Amino acid sequence: MISDFLGKPADLNLKQSKIESDRFGISVARMSVSIDCLATDLEIVRVCNESSADLLILRFPSSRTQLARELAGISNKIAFQADTLVYFSKDLRSIVERRSTSENWKLVTATSKDESSVIDLARVVFRDYPNHYQSNRALSSKLILDGYVEWASKGLNDPEKSTVIIEDQNSNAIAFALVTFGEEGAEIELNGVHPDFQNQGVYSSLLELLMVKLASQNVEKLFISTQIQNTKVIKAWIKAGFTLDFSLNTFHLVSRQSV
C-alpha cells in the first residue's frame, strides 16, 4: 500500500505473512523499502540473507538501480525480479460533480449484501491478471486467484475501507473498486471491469464517478498502482488526469532449501 512507501523514512521491517503462508503452504515473508529509507543496499541484502522464509517478497524503489545485482549475490537464495509496479496519483481538490459519460450505469456503494457479486467480479477480473505471483512458477494459479478473491471479500467487510460497484440498467454489477484511506489520501487497492463490458467506457465512468464521490468526502488525493506492462489501464489513468509518481521493483527471493 502507498503508506508503506511514502511518509517518514522507515526502518527495515521484515514481516511474516500468515495469510500468504497459509494460502500457499510455505513460509512467506514480506519487506517493503520506503522511498526515503535510509538503509543502504547492503543492509537490505543482509536482512534478506538472514530471512528463514521459503519465499521473501521484497519491494523497493526502482531508483535503487544496483540493489538487484546485490540480491543476485545472496548464495542461499534464488532471487529474481517478479514485476515492476507503477504508482499514479491525482489531486481531487479541483474535481467538480458532473454527469457520467453514460446513462447506462450508476455508481453504488457496496454492502455485505453485495458480497457474492463482488466475489464473482473479482474472480473473472483477476483470472488472467498479470502480477508478481504469476512470475513464480512454484505458485499455483488457482491459489493466486483465490488470493485476489479473498482480498476483495475481506475489503468489502472492512469498515475502514469502501467498495463501490458499477451497475448496469438491470442492476447487474459489472465493475468494482476497493478503496482504502490513510494520511496520504485514498488508494484504489483493487478495481476492474467484467470482461463482457470492457471497451464500452465503463472503466472511465468508474474512475470519474469514484473521484467525484471521494472529492465530496474531502479526500484530496487518490493513488492507484498496477504492473508496468498493464498499458491499457495506464492509458485510461493518464486520460483521467493521473500522473506517474514512482515505480517499485518486486523481487522474489526463494530459499534454496525449499526448492
Secondary-structure map with pairings?
Elements: E1 15-16, H1 18-24, E2 28-32, H2 41-50, E3 55-61, H3 67-72, E4 77-91, E5 106-109, H4 115-125, H5 141-156, E6 161-167, E7 173-182, E8 185-193, H6 202-216, E9 221-227, H7 231-239, E10 243-255
Parallel strand pairs: 2-3, 8-9
Antiparallel strand pairs: 1-2, 3-10, 4-9, 4-10, 5-6, 6-7, 7-8
Structural commentary:
- This protein folds into two domains: 2-86 and 248-258; 90-246, Aminopeptidase (3-Layer(aba) Sandwich).
- By secondary structure, it is α+β, with helices and mostly antiparallel strands.
- The chain has a ten-stranded mixed sheet with strand order 1-2-3-10-4-9-8-7-6-5, with helices on both faces.
- The protein is built from seven helices and ten strands.
- The longest helix is centred in the middle third of the chain and has 16 residues, at 141-156.
- The chain is 29% helix and 31% strand.
* Total DSSP E strands: 10
Question: Low-confidence stretches at least 5 residues in length (pLDDT < 50)?
Answer: none
CATH topology name of the largest domain: Aminopeptidase
- How many domains comprise the coordinates? 2
Main pleated-sheet profile:
10 strands, mixed
Quote the average pLDDT.
Answer: 93
| Helical content class | 25-40%
Assign the CATH superfamily of the largest domain: Gcn5-related N-acetyltransferase (GNAT)
Percentage of residues in strands: 25-35%
Based on CA inertia axes, which overall geometry fits? globular
In short:
It is globular, with a radius of gyration of 19 Å. It is α+β, with helices and mostly antiparallel strands. It has seven helices and ten strands.
